[in-house]
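ok trying again, last paste got cut off:
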Amino acid sequence: MLKILKISAGSVAAILLADVLGLNYSASAGIITLLTIQDTTKETIAISVKRIMAFLLAAVLAYVVFHLAGYRVLSFGIFLFLFVACCKPLGLVSAVSTNAVLVAHYLTQKDMSLPAIGNEALLLCIGAGIGTLLNLYMPGKVKEIRKMQRILEEDLRNVLFRMSEYIQKEDKSDYTGTCFDKLASDVSIGKKQALDYTNNTFFQEAEYFITYMNMREQQCVVLKEIYKKIVSIRKIPPQAEQISAFIHEIAISFGESNNAKALLEDLSELLLQMKESPLPVTREEFEERAILFSILMDLNRFLQLKKNFADNITAEQIRRYWRVE
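nice, full thing came through this time. structure:
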């Protein structure tokens, strides 16, 4: 809805401004505004820059063609052939249609004097300028993303609590992977929100959200692996109680500003205790103990993802995003 309002209001404003300046073909300024407004600020600016570059190329080609072949429809066809052929390797194809319309005005007037070129240049500047200015305003998405971060963390916390519970249960008939459905959906929504925000701002710090969402997505993959291993446990080894307590500890302390270093130290202690515990006697005990050890390795990977994330963000990102809200 906001984009529609921008297109409508911007097109009208562009036409009115062109009329006030006494430009010919003022409606073209409104059409250029319509075509300029894209889904994101960066896309809008990029296409405006391309249209200005293409305008300069079009003016040179049109001047040469019209002065050599005259102001005829055939000449316009020759111009279009040359113009498109030049724009394609330069990556300016998206600017062809707008500038073709402006060059058609030269054909209609049979004039490519400096005032005529200036008229078209102003139409382009007004249309692209108003479109760009309007699209510089994008409603703040930070609160929306921050809310999704909290939802994601609650999702992950719930998954961990369930893991802590079911790793000690032999009956896992009601332990299904449905808890990952909401988690996957929320991660997908969060990544889209982060990408939209990054494309609509020029602050490098906005990339924090992309990195954060990617980190959470990778953690989800690890948790799914742990889930499969917990389900495969049939006879519960004594060490499962310690691992359950550790997973519960992760869930309680889980949060954006936890760098996971303390948890990794606790995990090292737990691994040492497992190594010092009596060796399994039966094949079944050995297999179950191996599964537990594999789960601990997965938990290590889970925590390392967060530690790596925390180690690679900037002090400014920590100041801005790890504040208590």
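cool. The chain has a mean pLDDT of 87. DSSP finds 13 helices and no strands in the chain.
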